[in-house]
């Protein structure tokens, strides 16, 4: 078993326990993928067929508005899942782009295989439901922070939740994520 699948197993075991046979069967549905820094693995308009478990590296999910301004929806680092989930679920073209900010190692799971595993393995269905719920709650908290908190509070919240992110991401991307200009972030950071 490769290191990537060992990391996946540890991640799964945070919520469920799988026998060796169950885990081997589950792994047979994942495809290891490696991408170089700056690679865009999903473009707006693409059909979305997969979600990705991040084994190593860092990605951003973003969209670019009509004026060319980039809006970052999510950073995804080790032990996170990433996709354009609305497009994946509805099997519609992607709204977001996903780009590698570092060299990344991913485990790719197709939407059809995910559904197959959920119908065949109650444990994996439970894991998926718990992860989706957790992701929804995190995004709800992020949107609430953008709506009601000032820039300083959003920056402090980011530092508390993801302390290592600041060292891995350029300040311009942090500014975009919390919804401020690069200059405003410089004032908050000093």
From TrEMBL:
- In this chain the Cyclic nucleotide-binding domain maps to 14-117
Gene3D superfamilies xrefs: Jelly Rolls
Question: Can you name this protein?
Answer: Cyclic nucleotide-binding protein
Q: Which organism is it from?
A: Filimonas zeae
């Amino acid at each position: 078993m490769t290191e990537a699948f060992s990391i996946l197993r540890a991640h799964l075991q945070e919520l469920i326990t799988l026998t060796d046979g169950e885990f081997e069967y589950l792994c047979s549905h994942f495809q290891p993928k490696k991408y170089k820094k700056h690679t865009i693995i999903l473009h707006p308009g693409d059909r979305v067929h997969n979600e990705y478990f991040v084994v190593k590296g860092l990605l951003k999910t973003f969209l670019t508005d009509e004026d060319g301004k980039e809006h970052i929806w999510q950073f995804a680092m080790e032990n996170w899942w990433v996709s354009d989930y609305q497009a994946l679920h509805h099997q519609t073209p992607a709204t977001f782009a996903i780009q590698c900010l570092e060299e990344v190692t991913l485990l790719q799971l197709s939407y059809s295989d995910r559904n197959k595993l959920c119908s065949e393995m109650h444990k994996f269905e439970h894991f998926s439901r718990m992860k989706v719920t957790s992701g929804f709650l995190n995004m709800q908290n992020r949107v609430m922070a953008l709506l009601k908190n000032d820039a300083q509070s959003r920056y402090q919240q980011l530092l508390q939740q993801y302390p290592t992110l600041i060292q891995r991401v350029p300040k311009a991307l942090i500014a975009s994520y919390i919804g401020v200009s690069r200059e405003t972030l410089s004032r908050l950071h000093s």
